[in-house]
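Q: Structure for this?
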Amino acid sequence: MIELSVHKKLRAPSGEMQLSVDINFPKRSFVCIYGKSGSGKTTLFKIISGIMQPDRGQIVVNGKTWLKTDDKFHLKPQKRKVGFVFQDYALFPNMTVLENLEYGLEKGQSKSIIDELIGLMELGVLADRKPDTISGGQKQRVALARALVQKPEILLLDEPLSALDHEMRIKLQEYILKVHQQYELTTLLISHDVSEILKMADTLYHLDDGKIIRQGKPVEVFTRKEISGKLQLTGEVVAVEPQDFMCLITVLIGNELAKVVVVRNEKELLKPGDKVLIASKAFNPVVKKIG
Amino acid sequence: MDWSPLILTFELAVIVTALLLIISVPLAYWLNESKSRTKPIIETLVSMPLVLPPTVLGFYLLVVFSPSNFLGHWLQEWFNIKLVFSFGGLVLASVIYSLPFMVHPIQSGFAKLPDSLKDASYVLGKSKAQTLFRVLLPNIRPSLLTGIVLAFAHTIGEFGVVLMIGGNIPDKTRVASIAIFDEVESLHYSVANAYSMVLFAITFVILLTVYLINGGYLQKFRT
């Protein structure tokens, strides 16, 4: 069980903001934190990893206390079993890929984990390259591997996929799910991407202005539990073509384009770029704006 | 031509640069990290030699370390250290005088590194010292080089401070810049010219090397 209770006053560009998060989730969950930028997501990760201190709070991970401000107890980031993949990857430019991974080893830890991770993340050919000379997706894999060297109890992923193209994203999602399973991790992911969240996470927390405003299973949170469709797909509207009394919309679902007919008045609500959920309810598909 | 002023100058510059490096790395690190209220005062003190006439600094050092004053007397009584008109005094004065030239490049080097590098190292279980030596310093190599070279070159070039606290004692405090002044006063222009040419050439080569390396013209030295 992971228990987080974190309270901190933040100075955001829009003024002061109170970050107040009280959440619990079981070990081995895949948790997604969703929310606008500036809602306190990265700060929450920094507090969990110990880089930043909250004004008040308590963090207990699998029975071990990491933080308890009431007792003035604060475990240093060095002592917390946490892996952190930073938004900018934070690979050390002076070291090769292999050296970056080896830097993560604890004193006396066997190097076999490095070989294992290099195999798992397919980094063999990159081992002697410097971070400046590899692509974004490759850096992301190195950062993920480095975060796993010490076999953390919690893996924090701060929007690691946001800078990558679609194809690379899909591939890296697979890697993340693979290591999440293999190392029995409790993973926290910050993401803006609805389809990504639906694919990866089992629990979703929607953070807005420092507070959790919605939580639950991702699909339930995003559909607000109003639809009981048998089939649900999410996608992005690419084009809206008004016909006589109907409207034809083209939706990108994953990598595929689908054309869906909606009634004319719904077209007013939809424009290219909108995220939509398409649910098949008996015969007529229901198209509803989400996110 | 007597080579001893030039040799003395380079001895002084090497010792001062080494001491400055030892002092400046922690100082610059602290200045970059700290949110302390004393920070602006320390920053001001570090930068003072940039704007203060060297003679002012030299004058006060002379006064403070004069054996007729408390501190100078105490140092001489207890440790047998005489800082006025001695090589030790030159070293101390030069360290203070060249401090901003070493601290500023290193501090801006630290400031340019993303915080995530340091954070990542801490999360990977590494101490502050390990992070400093294995991650931060290796990634600000160009700044370190700039600091070392500027401090070295600046120490070679100083005059006012050295003259005030060191005087003009051959083989002890008579560095090249003072020797040049001395020779000119004695109307030995050709000797003054020889010293000047050597200093001119050496400082040109040193600075050129920095620009070549930091500009990436000599890639292999950088990585």
